[in-house]
Amino acid sequence: MTSRYNRAVTDETYIRRALELARRARDEGEVPIGALVVLRDEVLGEGWNRPIAANDPTAHAEINALRAAAQKQGNYRLTGATLYVTLEPCDMCVGAMFHARIARTVYGAKDPKKLVLKNQVAIEGGVLAEECGAILSKFFAAKR
After folding, report:
1. What is the pTM of this model?
2. Angle at Cα 39 formed by Cα 35 and Cα 42, nearest 5°?
3. 101 and which of 3, 79, 81, 141 could share a cystine (Cβ 3.0–4.6 Å)?
């Protein structure tokens, strides 16, 4: 793309807005993280951390911004959009961005605890694997 578009200036502008949203989270007693989803210079959705207020462990700023953007678009696929967030996204949020088809993510601070799992979760697989796989296979075969 050859235009006068200055990605660094634009990125700073949107991260500044994400900081405003982070302050809102802080004022509500939440961890101060803010995020927004932008497509072609239009803000589609904004969010800030709300897991305490919402009693929802998935109510991260990124997830809230993605939900708002998907509602506005009427589609969970946000192809080509950029997500701006004040802190490097966690694995859950990265997964949500992948499913939403986010093209680009821009974050402010690096998360020094990103690779540290505070709670160990035992994960076991293979229980009724054939039946679980069959229902998915039949569903997608019917879609084609």
Report:
1. 0.84
2. 85
3. 79
